[in-house]
Specification:
By secondary structure, this protein is mostly helical. It has one domain. Helix content is 78%, strand content 0%.
Length: 270
Amino acid sequence: MSELVAGLVLASALLHLTWNLLVRHEPGSLKFVWYLTLAGGLLATVAALALGFSPDFHRVWPWLLGTIIAHAFYFSGLAHAYKEGDLGDIYPATRGGGILGTVLLAGLLLQQPIPLVTLCGILVVALAVMVPAFRARWTLSRMSWTLLVMASIAVYSTTDSHGVHLLSPIPYIACQFLGTAVVLTPWALKDRTVVRVHVAAGAGLMSMISYLLILYAYQRTAAAPVLALRQIGIALSPWMGWLFLRERMRRDALWISIAIAIGAALIVMG
């Protein structure tokens, strides 16, 4: 993996963990997620217009439709999952499962080649990331929402890694976020939760920029190693959950962080 791609992914990881922290602080609020996607989409649209993009949607619209649907399931599932579980449980479970799903789906549908060293690093990261999930107490409802998020990650990661070869990342992400907001609108209107709009807008900005960096990385390499390296933020999630949300700190956090760092090194080396 090139230094440029690694830098894009690591910056994305920090932003991704930060906005997940904000969503967890607004448990179960689809309205918050709706504001998040709407704000991110509007900001990306302004950027696309300012930069003078005139995209041709003829080839890319099926991929945009696929990612919009997958992201709608992702954001709604994430909001419900965080309503029932801790950041330190849900975040690692969904990201680790999403990595494994992307390896399979991108390999089968797009036949993206992955060097052996990189594949070993991906598996190390995925398994290390999921350690807290193995020890958590799972209800059927929490497990169902978490599995939905895992599957959504695999679908949209595979879809987007191909879609950004057909359309520039900025207009692509603008359509993705705005389309997701449109799909979520009926459920958001039914949500009576009081939402801090400025917080949701800030999370939307971070989410949009975070994923925009990933889309640029997808243009340069396969989806699975990018997604796996992005999980370096998992090493920080228990610490941030403990520091900002007063969640219980796990004893194995240090060992998980070391394992993730080893896996990330293998991915970069590959």
